[in-house]
Design brief:
It contains four helices and four strands, in the order βαααββαβ. By secondary structure, it is α+β, with helices and mostly antiparallel strands. It has one domain. It has a two-stranded parallel ribbon. It has a two-stranded antiparallel sheet with strand order 2-3. The two termini are about 30 Å apart. About 15% of the residues are buried.
């Protein structure tokens, strides 16, 4: 068996399967970011710097999650249908919140979702008056209260997607697939 040559996985995997594989990678990234975000307890008093650090994890989770469900050049669309799975209403609501947050806040800066403060303070110094600008923004953790539900949701999606791929490769010979932009295959 060890000497059996690897077959090109393209002979067995459809574009839908390749999209599921890419989505597993994206969802694993989202899960890791959500778990990093969860290192903070509800009772912890956070400095602004620490809160922003965890906001970076949350934003990374939202981006990676959205990447799995966003149309991509060269990949078919990923959907629950590919997983033969229908989310519960609560799961569907979380899914929609994640995609909405990605679309309107994390990947873009829609005016309707902005939370910024700009003000100036006047300082008198000898014979000069100086106006000092001050900028503040919302760096709250939007999914913090739902972080355990988010982690469970991501784990469930990874499990569903992995099960689809597991079933596809059963009974097939050993195979390999490589798509790497750093190593283009010339035809």
């Amino acid at each position: 068996m060890a000497d059996e040559p690897l077959l090109d996985a393209k002979d067995f995997l459809t574009e839908q399967h390749l999209r599921i594989i890419q989505s597993i990678i994206d969802l694993q990234m989202a899960l890791s970011a959500a778990e990093f975000m969860s290192e903070v307890c509800n009772e912890d008093r956070l400095t602004r710097v620490i809160r922003r650090r965890h906001r970076c994890f949350e934003d990374a989770a939202v981006i990676a999650y959205g990447r799995a469900f966003t149309d991509s050049k060269g990949l078919v669309a990923f959907s629950f249908k590919l997983l033969k799975f229908k989310p519960t209403p609560i799961q569907q609501e979380l899914h929609e919140r994640l995609l909405d947050r990605r679309k309107k806040v994390v990947a873009h800066s829609d005016a309707e979702r902005q939370r910024i403060l700009f003000q100036t303070e006047k300082f008198e110094a000898d014979t000069a008056t100086v106006m000092l600008p001050h900028i503040d923004s919302d760096d709250a953790l939007h999914f913090f209260d739902d972080r355990m539900m988010l982690i469970e949701w991501l784990g469930l999606l990874i499990k569903k997607a992995s099960s689809v791929i597991f079933e596809v490769v059963q009974g097939k010979p050993p195979m390999r697939f490589l798509r790497d932009y750093k190593f283009p295959i010339s035809t």
